[in-house]
Known about the structure:
Strand order of the largest sheet: 2-3-4-5-6-7-9-10
Number of helices: 2
Shape: globular
Structural class: alpha+beta
Mean pLDDT: 82
Largest sheet: 8 strands, antiparallel, barrel
Low-confidence stretches: 1-19
Radius of gyration: 19 Å
Amino acid sequence: xxxxxxxxxxxxxxxxxxxxxxxxxxxxxxxxxxxxxxxxxxxxxxxxxxxxxxxxxxxxxxxxxxxxxxxxxxxxxxxxxxxxxxxxxxxxxxxxxxxxxxxxxxxxxxxxxxxxxxxxxxxxxxxxxxx
Length: 131
């Protein structure tokens, strides 16, 4: 009887503390590096996204480069959705661009008008976007 209670207790503790992250299938997309409002590089890339339990992770793989973008949910974030971002460990700001004209855009306006968006992250030395 004690053994059954111990097994049940272990199962409850395991289930209640499990982190529920959701990986999405990898997809082929287009990655951009910007200098100002002009794309300086554009190439095909593999986009891997996982999110859940207070964070999000995106990996962009293109040619010989890999960019790891981490978002941590936090109450004192400058991001409109409550995340602090890093790109390869360097603090980054997230923003959106219109995929047709590359101008910086309000995401609500883009999605409301069903415009294609680029998801962007800017550090002091890198301005990186993907579709």
